[in-house]
Design brief:
Number of strands: 95
Strand content: 35-45%
Oligomer: single chain
Shape: flat
Radius of gyration: 60 Å
Number of helices: 6
Distance between the termini: 82 Å
Largest sheet: 6 strands, mixed
Amino acid sequence: MPEMPRGKLTPPESALGASTPSRTPYMCPHLPSPPAPSLSHPPATLPSGRSLSQARPALPRRFGAAGKMAVALRYLWPLLLCSPCVLIQIPEELMEPPIITEQSPRRVVVFPTDDVSLKCEASGKPEVQFRWTRDGILFKPKEELGMIVNQAPHSGSFSITGNSSNFAQSFQGIYRCFASNKLGTAMSHEIQLMAEGTPKWPKETVKPVEVEEGESVILPCHPPPSAEPLRIYWMNSKILHIKQDERVTMGQNGNLYFANVLTSDNHSDYICHAHFPGTRTIIQKEPIDLRVKATNSMMDRKPHLLFPTNSSSHLVALQGQPLVLECIAEGFPTPTIKWLRPSGPMPADRVTYQNHNKTLQLLNVGEEDDGEYRCLAENSLGSDRHAYYVTVEAAPYWLHKPQSHLYGPGETARLDCQVQGRPQPEVTWRINGIPVEELGKDQKYRIHHGALVLSNLQPSDTMVTQCEARNRHGLLLANAYIYVVELPAKILTPDNETYMAVQGSTAYLLCKAFGAPVPSVQWLDREGKTVLQDERFFPYTNGTLGIRDLQANDTGHYFCQAANDQSNVTIVANLQVKDATRIMQGPRSTIEKRGSRVMFTCQASFDPSLQHSTTWRRDALDLQELGDSDKYFIEDERLVIHSLDYSDQGNYSCVASTKLDMVESQAELLVVGSPGPVPQLELSDRHLLKQSQVRLSWSPADDHNAPIEKYDIEFEDKEMAPEKWYSLGKVPGNQTSTTLKLSPYVHYTFRVTAINKYGPGEPSPDSETVVTPEAAPEKNPVDVKGEGNETNNMIITWKPLRWMDWNAPQVQYRVQWRPQKMQGAWQEQIVSDPFLVVSNTSTFVPYEIKVQTVNSQGKGPEPQITIGYSGEDYPQAIPLLEPVKALNSSTVLVRWQSVDPAQVKGHLRGYNVTYWWEGSQRKHSKRHVHKGHVVVPANTTSAILGGLQPYSSYRVEVQAFNGRGLGPASGMTFNTPEGVPGHPEALHLECQSDTSLLLHWQPPLSHNGVLTGYVLSYQPLNDGSKEQLSFDLPDPELRTHNLTNLSPRLRYRFQLQATTREGPGEAIIREGGTMALSGTPDFGNISAMAGENYSVVSWVPKEGQCNFGFQIWFKALGDEKLVTRLPPQYVSYNQSSYTQWDLQPDTDYEIQLLKEQVLLHQMAVKTNGTGRVRLPPAGFATEGWFIGFISAIVVLLLILLILCFIKRSKGGKYSVKDKEDTQVDSEARPMKDETFGEYSDNEEKAFGSSQPSLNGDIKPLGSDDSLADYGGSVDVQFNEDGSFIGQYSGKKEKEAAGGNDSSGATSPVNPIGTLE
């Protein structure tokens, strides 16, 4: 956001400029203030923190010296009047024209108990003299005979006290006050004095008012007239107000109107009371006796207006005043009143309806309210109307009011008097209270376009002028003086003031001068040259010098010189230009989610010599940290707002300020989130409930700055499912109503939730509850099925109706069934539960089934027929296997012929293919493994078994199955062909010399055939050559190979593959080089630590260092006779550490690391302990052969004990074949457990010596296998416990198996892997 510089200082009043001769004076507090000037103010720069006075741009040259004098003199008069503010010497001979300061209102009403008092106060110098006129004739209050007159000295106000209550009658008239001194005469406005006597009701004879019940009547009031507004009340003799309503109304004229009378209106004391606030008097009219005759034949009649009585009327309304229109009608039934405006709508913000809509009040009438207004009285029999034609007029009001001014000799004065009104007011001018028409013609003044113009002014032309405008609605008067003076030049601005401003701004150096004639003002630099040669410098007529686009080199001293023909004065002004405040990086507008946090940053630069501050604002109001709240975190350059809410969005600004300037950078924060709650719901069109419909409307939710995408409509039934809401659907976000299709017999309570891209908002408040009528069912159950769980039954099931589809209470189901293709009678039964068991059926017979909903109101629609079947039996069909086809060394294709459907005894669900590994062809040993199986759909007669072990023997069996279980199996044995071997298990490189390496490896774990040898390949890596050397190693028993003639500078990549007759297998790869490439053997961080009889030497092998062998020799220091000499030990570099035992305690040892008699490293260590002891001669018990012999005996005894334990635990339970199956071939590898199109034999799992049950051979259907490869699916049905319907394994199988204790599912899709 770009920064927005704003002036820190308010523009001074003296900076106000004018390019015309018109003047705007200062007025002291005790003078009438002129209207605010309409000219713009230039910005200001305060000297030493003080405000400037007004300044104006320079006058055009055509005004000359006289014009400049007038501009300066216009400010003199207020300075003289406000002399305490200005410390200069004012000439005592300067006078003040008269100014009216206080006067009576334009209308004065005198009541019998009051004195006649009129006010007229004025100021002026010399002292003001007062005189009064009444009806244009001189009036002297003190000369009134027989009256007591009070009048204070030097005041025009007076009061007259009479000797009778009606003395004021003789003083009625139009008064005007004149205040005069040597400089002129001021005049007050016209004051109308009215005298009002004690109000009395004229004597009259009030006759009873007789009327028949139902007719209309008007009870008149007619109070005495009064100059002041009065109040009317209708009461009875008990001082109780007459109750008013639409039938009984008091009009604006005070009359009491009855639209139709009732017998209850029969009273003899209807009294009209008139309250006169001026006299503080309440008088009452004689009581009116209203007699109502009862009738049994009240006739209805259409409305008729009692007031106004004609069809139309014309009214004049005054602009700015209220307009009151009234219509009162009679009729039976009582009419209602409506107000219309044919030209457009009523101004709702200014119109009010009162008195039961019979009175229209329009406030602050304007020209736009001109036109026709209609009132319409209506009842059931007809209507009546009245048209008011309103004309808006206006009393005179000012467009430009003449102002008082000071002038110098030779100037021209122009006093503008512009007024407006309807009708257009007449404008007249007076000079010193005398109409200009009555003055002799003088060339010094003329009236031009309503303005009074006086030219070539002289001190003797000082005067007070009056402009008066009037039309039939009022009068306006303005006094304005013309004062012509002569004074020497003076400068009011203090000398040697210092001004400070920032670069790029505008500075204003003050030089407030006055005098008569007007002094000429010019600004000079230190050399006495004018500064106006630079176009950035510009003067104002009040002497102020403006300098725009300030630069640093503008700092300096400036001299102001004011001169007229009487004097010449000069002051100096000092200007200091500072660096401007700038915001280098301001806050950036952002959109954040509710609940998150936002951080605004602000970086600003300041003048180093100025105190500065950085504040934060929100929507133009300063932000403060809120006490203990962590909502805002404010630092100079950061504002962090935590836990954003929608109320936090707005405009945030950084304000950088000094005492000279201020800049602001603003950013907008929008907080978004899910919508607010829908505030209100409304139900309508309730008559549609008979058709189970209703219209729901709602008020739009607050979208929280993200458009509402849709509304979700939900309902709750507090009777059936309290506190559970169901969706009725969604409507677009721009829709706020919809007609809902409802279900019968539901207690609906609705709510609506708004949704936008941030999710759903809070739901609306609950609507009122509506209840739909009961009806017959409209739906029948779905998912109707017929299946048996025994061979002689059929269970009919269906999905029960939801409660919202019941349509009435007592919901039940009518179930019908009959054998398929038999047109016999239907068997039926009505049930409440969602199932029915049909017994004594034949095995696997198709039935036609229908399920229909019934309730207390009737039946549902005719149901569709569903085909179901009675219970299944175990299949008797045996799939006929075809020869197995090998696809590759690990994948085969198994095929069979489809079975006879009649032998399936049920729905053919698919085929179960079981297979297992029996042994390797290389070694004819066997081991027991878990069986893999694949379940394929009924329309498939083949299966691909993948992931098999090459060069092995397998057994495969295929069984058909239905919902009851598996049928008999057909089996076959097949062999997989030989394949390529796996990668060698290990490959190690050992450095022999600078040109040779020794390779060590281990054979592959998976031979997949008969190994025929190895292939070794290698190539250099860093000589740019891609040539690879390769040669065969035909000995399969080979485990090492020595490579010679290698380059000592190159690094090689080695690749080793095992081979069978099918070719080489996967390679193992290693990289390395010779001893020369590794450099000098590095034993980095080598260290040694010791115990009493051992020492551990450890080192960190260098990365990239070739592995090699070396010797470690512990050599005891000191007396070798006391220490057993230890031989050197062979160690590999990569093993990182070596432990030497059999050391003597408290002995120093030298440790040498040797390779081929070359010393690689040498270090020393000392063992712990208390001292050396002489060891006895070694006996045969310490010899190695003896220790080995004893160890062998212990191992043999341990093996015999284990064999005995195994034989005892088996206890003769197993056949010879079982024992053979448990012998695991060391070359046979585990196989994965896969199903449904892929093989599995899970050899890695533990197994027992007995064969697993059939239940343990089949993997669940929920495995990772897919039926997509077979183009079909398996339809498998389960009981509630997850097993096949019909219990695939069955009781007979359990008995045949000797009592299988497994309690799990016994189907091919949910097997149990327990062992017997």
